[in-house]
Amino acid sequence: MQFKQIAAATALTTVVLAETTTLNPSSWTTLTPSTTYSLGLSTATSTFGIAVNPITTGSIWDKYKPTSSGTSTIANPTSITETAVSEATSVNEDPFEVVACRAPGVLNVTLEDGILKDSKNRIGSIVSNRQFQFDGPVPQAGAIYANGWSISPEGNLVLGDDDLFFQCLSGDFYNLYDEYVAEQCYPINLQVLEYVDC
Questions:
Q1: What pLDDT does residue 173 have?
Q2: Residues 177 and 132 sit within 8 Å (Cβ to Cβ)
Q3: Which of 92, 36, 81, 80 is closest to 186 using CA atoms?
Q4: Which residues pair with residue 149 across a beta bridge?
Q5: DSSP reduced 3-state for 10
Q6: Would the pLDDT of 183 be above 50?
Q7: Biggest CA-to-CA distance, the chain
Q8: Cβ contacts of residue 193 below 8 Å, gap of 6+?
Q9: What pLDDT is attached to residue 16?
Q10: Which residues pair with 187 in a beta bridge?
């Protein structure tokens, strides 16, 4: 097996875990994108983690890479300081192509009928500033999307029919967004990780 380093705790440190706010409990499940990914898995049978997988080549990278005038402030989009780094290996089982060692304090996520939840029962959503975060037990007021999540056959987290997200430098950490919101943002995929005991 070939091993590589995966920042399994990336999502834990980059996805904002916000406090409970008020939103009509019966309406948040309807906050879905207008399109869906037909090949996406909308329910996962086990908990999983999320790792940031930077896109550094291809047409998406060409569209969002730093300009020659040096307007971007990120020297290396993959250099993220983490509290825990797990070893991972590729596997051929769907939907998880990558496994990571289970560790205390890393983000544990479930996916059921298009709804993401963390281990504290907070809902994965895109909020009004386009940031990906977990709130709960219901999403914060003004949330844009709280349903419509799936996992692609390639093992990427998908919202609606799109697996493109952005990591954006904010001080000495990154936040995750579903849209390009500033020059310090880079395109990424969110790779799902199956946790195993190591």
A1: 92
A2: yes
A3: 80
A4: 159
A5: helix
A6: yes
A7: 49
A8: 6, 8, 48, 49, 50, 51, 86, 88, 96, 98, 99, 100
A9: 45
A10: 166
Is 57 within 8 Å of 173 (Cβ atoms)?
no
Query: Residue 160 to residues 144, 164, 194: CA-CA distances in angstroms?
Result: 12, 11, 22
Question: Taken in order 42, 46, 47, 52, is the CA torsion positive or negative?
Answer: negative
Amino acid at 141: A
> Which of 30-39, 57-66, 72-81, 118-127 is predicted with the least confidence, judged by mean pLDDT?
72-81
- 42-79 tens-digit pLDDT: 998 888 999 999 998 888 878 877 665 444 433 333 33
Q: Is the pLDDT of residue 37 over 90?
A: no
pLDDT at 3: 31
User: Are the CB atoms for 144 and 130 separated by under 8 Å?
Assistant: yes
Contact (CB, 8 A) for 88 and 4: yes
Angle, CA 146 vertex, CA 41 and CA 36 arms, to 5°: 40
Residue 176 near residue 165 (C-beta atoms within 8 A):
yes
The residues near 67 (Cβ < 8 Å, ≥ 6 apart) are none
The type of residue at 21 is T
pLDDT of residue 2: 30
155 with 49: CB under 8 angstroms?
Answer: no
